[in-house]
Write a structure and sequence with these properties.
The chain is α/β, with parallel strands linked by helices. Helices cover about 40% and strands about 15% of the residues. The chain is built from twelve helices and eleven strands. A six-stranded mixed sheet has the order 6-7-8-9-11-10, sandwiched between helices. Helix 3 (about 105-110) runs antiparallel to helix 4, helix 6 packs across helix 10 (about 230-245) and helix 8 (about 185-190) crosses helix 9 (about 195-210).
Length: about 325
Protein backbone atom coordinates (compact mmCIF):
# COMPACT_ATOMS: atom_id res chain seq x y z
CA UNK A 1 0.00 0.00 0.00
CA UNK A 2 1.09 3.60 -0.57
CA UNK A 3 0.92 6.33 2.05
CA UNK A 4 1.45 10.09 1.70
CA UNK A 5 2.11 11.75 5.05
CA UNK A 6 2.34 15.54 5.08
CA UNK A 7 2.12 18.49 7.41
CA UNK A 8 -1.21 20.30 7.07
CA UNK A 9 0.43 23.68 6.53
CA UNK A 10 1.42 25.39 3.28
CA UNK A 11 4.88 23.85 3.14
CA UNK A 12 3.66 20.28 3.56
CA UNK A 13 0.72 20.66 1.19
CA UNK A 14 2.73 22.42 -1.53
CA UNK A 15 5.52 19.86 -1.24
CA UNK A 16 3.06 17.03 -1.87
CA UNK A 17 1.34 18.93 -4.68
CA UNK A 18 4.62 19.16 -6.56
CA UNK A 19 5.48 15.53 -5.97
CA UNK A 20 2.13 14.08 -7.01
CA UNK A 21 1.74 16.40 -9.99
CA UNK A 22 5.11 15.09 -11.22
CA UNK A 23 4.80 11.51 -9.95
CA UNK A 24 1.10 10.59 -9.65
CA UNK A 25 0.39 7.81 -7.19
CA UNK A 26 -2.72 6.47 -5.51
CA UNK A 27 -2.01 6.74 -1.80
CA UNK A 28 -3.73 7.02 1.54
CA UNK A 29 -3.45 10.66 2.66
CA UNK A 30 -2.43 11.18 6.29
CA UNK A 31 -2.25 14.70 7.68
CA UNK A 32 -3.86 16.93 10.29
CA UNK A 33 -3.53 20.35 11.87
CA UNK A 34 -0.09 21.90 11.63
CA UNK A 35 0.98 20.77 15.09
CA UNK A 36 -0.11 17.17 14.44
CA UNK A 37 3.32 15.86 13.46
CA UNK A 38 3.46 12.31 14.86
CA UNK A 39 2.16 11.03 11.54
CA UNK A 40 4.30 7.90 11.17
CA UNK A 41 2.56 6.40 14.21
CA UNK A 42 -0.69 6.41 12.21
CA UNK A 43 0.70 3.96 9.65
CA UNK A 44 0.69 0.22 10.30
CA UNK A 45 3.27 -0.50 7.63
CA UNK A 46 4.08 -3.91 6.21
CA UNK A 47 6.68 -5.20 3.79
CA UNK A 48 6.37 -3.64 0.35
CA UNK A 49 4.56 -0.49 1.46
CA UNK A 50 5.78 2.82 0.03
CA UNK A 51 5.63 5.75 2.44
CA UNK A 52 6.27 9.40 1.61
CA UNK A 53 6.79 11.78 4.55
CA UNK A 54 6.90 15.54 4.01
CA UNK A 55 7.54 18.44 6.39
CA UNK A 56 7.40 16.71 9.77
CA UNK A 57 10.36 16.28 12.09
CA UNK A 58 12.12 12.94 11.70
CA UNK A 59 13.22 13.22 15.32
CA UNK A 60 9.57 13.24 16.44
CA UNK A 61 8.78 10.20 14.24
CA UNK A 62 11.98 8.20 14.75
CA UNK A 63 10.57 5.17 16.53
CA UNK A 64 7.72 4.68 14.05
CA UNK A 65 10.09 5.29 11.14
CA UNK A 66 12.51 2.62 12.30
CA UNK A 67 9.63 0.22 12.88
CA UNK A 68 8.37 0.76 9.33
CA UNK A 69 11.83 0.28 7.86
CA UNK A 70 12.49 -2.88 9.85
CA UNK A 71 9.11 -4.20 8.71
CA UNK A 72 10.15 -3.96 5.06
CA UNK A 73 8.51 -0.68 4.02
CA UNK A 74 10.39 1.86 1.88
CA UNK A 75 10.32 5.50 2.99
CA UNK A 76 10.97 8.73 1.09
CA UNK A 77 11.46 11.46 3.70
CA UNK A 78 11.86 15.19 2.96
CA UNK A 79 12.02 17.79 5.72
CA UNK A 80 13.77 20.86 7.11
CA UNK A 81 13.12 20.48 10.84
CA UNK A 82 15.46 19.01 13.46
CA UNK A 83 16.04 15.41 12.45
CA UNK A 84 18.37 13.97 15.06
CA UNK A 85 20.45 11.05 13.81
CA UNK A 86 19.18 9.85 10.44
CA UNK A 87 18.86 6.04 10.32
CA UNK A 88 21.09 4.28 7.83
CA UNK A 89 18.85 1.86 5.95
CA UNK A 90 18.67 0.72 2.36
CA UNK A 91 14.92 1.37 2.27
CA UNK A 92 15.22 5.00 3.42
CA UNK A 93 15.75 7.93 1.06
CA UNK A 94 16.12 11.09 3.14
CA UNK A 95 16.45 14.67 1.91
CA UNK A 96 17.00 16.70 5.07
CA UNK A 97 18.25 20.28 5.22
CA UNK A 98 17.84 22.30 8.43
CA UNK A 99 19.16 25.59 7.03
CA UNK A 100 16.94 28.50 8.16
CA UNK A 101 16.12 29.69 4.63
CA UNK A 102 15.10 26.26 3.34
CA UNK A 103 11.63 24.68 3.40
CA UNK A 104 10.31 21.29 2.35
CA UNK A 105 8.61 22.68 -0.75
CA UNK A 106 11.98 24.08 -1.90
CA UNK A 107 13.68 20.75 -1.25
CA UNK A 108 11.07 18.90 -3.31
CA UNK A 109 11.50 21.51 -6.03
CA UNK A 110 15.20 20.68 -6.16
CA UNK A 111 14.47 16.96 -6.27
CA UNK A 112 12.08 17.50 -9.20
CA UNK A 113 14.36 19.98 -10.98
CA UNK A 114 11.70 22.68 -10.90
CA UNK A 115 8.94 20.73 -12.65
CA UNK A 116 6.21 22.47 -10.60
CA UNK A 117 8.04 25.57 -9.47
CA UNK A 118 4.88 27.64 -8.98
CA UNK A 119 3.80 25.37 -6.14
CA UNK A 120 7.29 25.52 -4.59
CA UNK A 121 7.13 29.32 -4.61
CA UNK A 122 3.68 29.20 -3.01
CA UNK A 123 4.94 26.88 -0.27
CA UNK A 124 7.97 29.05 0.47
CA UNK A 125 5.78 32.14 0.77
CA UNK A 126 3.48 30.22 3.09
CA UNK A 127 6.44 29.24 5.28
CA UNK A 128 7.30 32.96 5.55
CA UNK A 129 10.49 32.53 3.54
CA UNK A 130 9.86 35.56 1.36
CA UNK A 131 13.41 35.91 0.05
CA UNK A 132 13.60 32.21 -0.75
CA UNK A 133 10.26 32.39 -2.55
CA UNK A 134 11.29 35.36 -4.66
CA UNK A 135 14.62 33.74 -5.50
CA UNK A 136 12.82 30.63 -6.68
CA UNK A 137 10.29 32.75 -8.57
CA UNK A 138 13.02 34.41 -10.62
CA UNK A 139 12.73 31.41 -12.96
CA UNK A 140 8.97 31.89 -13.39
CA UNK A 141 7.58 33.97 -16.23
CA UNK A 142 4.87 35.73 -14.24
CA UNK A 143 3.95 39.31 -13.37
CA UNK A 144 4.58 41.00 -10.04
CA UNK A 145 0.83 40.89 -9.38
CA UNK A 146 0.78 37.14 -9.95
CA UNK A 147 3.69 36.80 -7.55
CA UNK A 148 1.70 38.73 -4.96
CA UNK A 149 -1.15 36.28 -5.56
CA UNK A 150 1.15 33.30 -4.89
CA UNK A 151 2.27 35.02 -1.69
CA UNK A 152 -1.34 35.46 -0.60
CA UNK A 153 -2.29 31.88 -1.43
CA UNK A 154 0.69 30.47 0.46
CA UNK A 155 -0.19 32.62 3.46
CA UNK A 156 -3.82 31.52 3.40
CA UNK A 157 -2.97 27.82 3.09
CA UNK A 158 -0.62 28.19 6.06
CA UNK A 159 -3.24 30.10 8.04
CA UNK A 160 -5.73 27.29 7.46
CA UNK A 161 -3.44 24.74 9.12
CA UNK A 162 -3.34 26.30 12.57
CA UNK A 163 -5.60 25.30 15.43
CA UNK A 164 -5.61 22.40 17.89
CA UNK A 165 -8.45 20.60 16.09
CA UNK A 166 -9.74 20.19 12.54
CA UNK A 167 -13.01 21.78 13.68
CA UNK A 168 -11.16 25.08 14.20
CA UNK A 169 -10.07 25.23 10.56
CA UNK A 170 -11.89 26.42 7.47
CA UNK A 171 -10.87 23.23 5.64
CA UNK A 172 -9.54 19.86 6.68
CA UNK A 173 -5.96 20.01 5.28
CA UNK A 174 -6.58 16.77 3.39
CA UNK A 175 -9.62 18.28 1.67
CA UNK A 176 -7.74 21.49 0.92
CA UNK A 177 -4.91 19.51 -0.65
CA UNK A 178 -7.40 17.73 -2.93
CA UNK A 179 -9.04 21.03 -3.93
CA UNK A 180 -5.65 22.52 -4.76
CA UNK A 181 -4.59 19.40 -6.66
CA UNK A 182 -7.70 19.65 -8.83
CA UNK A 183 -6.74 23.19 -9.89
CA UNK A 184 -4.62 23.89 -12.94
CA UNK A 185 -1.88 25.44 -10.84
CA UNK A 186 -1.95 27.93 -7.96
CA UNK A 187 -2.97 30.94 -10.05
CA UNK A 188 -5.96 29.03 -11.42
CA UNK A 189 -7.04 28.37 -7.83
CA UNK A 190 -6.59 32.05 -6.94
CA UNK A 191 -8.60 33.35 -9.87
CA UNK A 192 -11.30 30.71 -10.22
CA UNK A 193 -12.01 29.05 -6.88
CA UNK A 194 -14.63 30.15 -4.37
CA UNK A 195 -12.54 28.33 -1.78
CA UNK A 196 -9.78 30.90 -2.25
CA UNK A 197 -12.29 33.63 -1.46
CA UNK A 198 -13.36 31.78 1.67
CA UNK A 199 -9.76 31.57 2.89
CA UNK A 200 -9.10 35.21 1.98
CA UNK A 201 -12.17 36.47 3.81
CA UNK A 202 -11.49 34.37 6.90
CA UNK A 203 -7.87 35.47 7.01
CA UNK A 204 -8.79 39.15 6.73
CA UNK A 205 -11.40 38.99 9.47
CA UNK A 206 -9.22 37.03 11.88
CA UNK A 207 -6.10 39.12 11.36
CA UNK A 208 -8.07 42.33 11.94
CA UNK A 209 -8.89 41.05 15.42
CA UNK A 210 -5.27 40.08 16.05
CA UNK A 211 -4.10 43.51 14.95
CA UNK A 212 -5.83 45.10 17.94
CA UNK A 213 -3.77 43.10 20.49
CA UNK A 214 -1.18 44.71 22.72
CA UNK A 215 1.94 42.82 23.85
CA UNK A 216 2.33 41.41 27.35
CA UNK A 217 5.98 42.38 27.09
CA UNK A 218 7.98 44.29 24.52
CA UNK A 219 11.47 45.68 24.19
CA UNK A 220 14.02 46.20 21.43
CA UNK A 221 14.93 42.50 21.17
CA UNK A 222 11.80 40.50 22.06
CA UNK A 223 8.04 40.67 22.45
CA UNK A 224 5.40 38.34 23.89
CA UNK A 225 1.75 38.38 22.82
CA UNK A 226 -1.17 36.46 24.36
CA UNK A 227 -4.09 35.36 22.20
CA UNK A 228 -7.44 34.54 23.86
CA UNK A 229 -9.06 31.11 23.97
CA UNK A 230 -11.20 31.76 20.88
CA UNK A 231 -11.47 30.00 17.54
CA UNK A 232 -10.20 32.94 15.48
CA UNK A 233 -7.15 33.25 17.73
CA UNK A 234 -6.25 29.59 17.35
CA UNK A 235 -6.37 30.00 13.58
CA UNK A 236 -4.04 33.01 13.42
CA UNK A 237 -1.37 31.97 15.93
CA UNK A 238 1.17 31.04 13.25
CA UNK A 239 0.51 33.63 10.56
CA UNK A 240 0.25 36.38 13.17
CA UNK A 241 3.69 35.33 14.42
CA UNK A 242 4.98 35.55 10.85
CA UNK A 243 3.52 39.03 10.38
CA UNK A 244 5.08 40.25 13.61
CA UNK A 245 8.45 38.87 12.53
CA UNK A 246 8.22 40.51 9.12
CA UNK A 247 7.17 43.88 10.52
CA UNK A 248 9.85 43.87 13.26
CA UNK A 249 12.80 41.97 11.74
CA UNK A 250 15.24 42.80 14.53
CA UNK A 251 12.97 41.45 17.26
CA UNK A 252 12.10 37.91 18.38
CA UNK A 253 8.43 37.10 18.97
CA UNK A 254 6.49 34.61 21.04
CA UNK A 255 2.75 34.28 20.49
CA UNK A 256 0.88 32.41 23.23
CA UNK A 257 -2.58 30.94 22.72
CA UNK A 258 -4.57 29.93 25.80
CA UNK A 259 -5.95 26.40 25.42
CA UNK A 260 -9.09 24.78 26.80
CA UNK A 261 -7.01 22.81 29.32
CA UNK A 262 -5.46 25.97 30.75
CA UNK A 263 -2.09 25.38 29.11
CA UNK A 264 -0.54 27.33 26.24
CA UNK A 265 0.17 26.75 22.56
CA UNK A 266 3.26 28.77 21.66
CA UNK A 267 4.70 29.99 18.36
CA UNK A 268 8.23 31.42 18.41
CA UNK A 269 9.86 33.40 15.62
CA UNK A 270 13.54 34.32 15.76
CA UNK A 271 14.53 37.76 14.45
CA UNK A 272 14.39 37.83 10.66
CA UNK A 273 17.89 39.35 10.57
CA UNK A 274 19.28 36.31 12.44
CA UNK A 275 17.15 33.21 12.16
CA UNK A 276 18.56 31.11 14.98
CA UNK A 277 17.74 29.68 18.39
CA UNK A 278 14.00 29.05 18.09
CA UNK A 279 14.15 25.25 17.98
CA UNK A 280 16.82 25.13 20.67
CA UNK A 281 14.64 27.27 22.94
CA UNK A 282 11.42 25.32 22.40
CA UNK A 283 13.07 21.93 22.76
CA UNK A 284 13.89 22.82 26.37
CA UNK A 285 10.18 22.19 27.07
CA UNK A 286 8.08 19.05 26.55
CA UNK A 287 6.14 19.05 23.23
CA UNK A 288 8.54 21.69 21.85
CA UNK A 289 10.33 21.58 18.53
CA UNK A 290 10.74 23.21 15.13
CA UNK A 291 13.58 24.82 13.24
CA UNK A 292 16.13 27.55 13.83
CA UNK A 293 14.00 30.45 12.66
CA UNK A 294 10.53 29.26 13.67
CA UNK A 295 9.47 26.81 16.34
CA UNK A 296 6.76 26.14 18.87
CA UNK A 297 5.47 24.30 21.90
CA UNK A 298 2.23 22.38 21.57
CA UNK A 299 1.22 22.20 25.22
CA UNK A 300 3.11 24.33 27.73
CA UNK A 301 1.83 23.78 31.30
CA UNK A 302 0.52 27.00 32.80
CA UNK A 303 2.84 26.73 35.79
CA UNK A 304 5.90 26.87 33.52
CA UNK A 305 4.80 29.95 31.57
CA UNK A 306 7.07 32.35 33.44
CA UNK A 307 10.00 29.96 33.02
CA UNK A 308 9.37 29.97 29.27
CA UNK A 309 9.13 33.78 29.11
CA UNK A 310 12.37 34.12 31.09
CA UNK A 311 14.13 31.64 28.79
CA UNK A 312 12.76 33.39 25.71
CA UNK A 313 13.91 36.82 26.85
CA UNK A 314 17.34 35.47 27.79
CA UNK A 315 17.74 33.66 24.45
CA UNK A 316 17.14 36.88 22.53
CA UNK A 317 18.58 39.51 24.84
CA UNK A 318 20.88 42.04 23.25
Amino acid sequence: MNYDLFNGDADGICALLQLRKAEPRDAALITGVKRDINLMSKVDAVSGDKITVLDVSMDKNKDALEKALSGGASVFYVDHHFSGDIPEHENLTAIINEAPDVCTAALVNGYLNGRHLDWAVTGAFGDNLKDTARTLASSLDISEQDLVSLDALGTYINYNGYGPAIADLHFDPKDLYLKLYAADGPLDFVHNSADFEKLSTGYGEDMAKAGALQPLHSNATSAVFLLPDETWARRVSGVYSNDLATENPERAHAVLTLKDNGNYLISVRAPMIKKSGAAELCMQFPTGGGRAGAAGINDLPADTLQRFIDAFEQAYSA
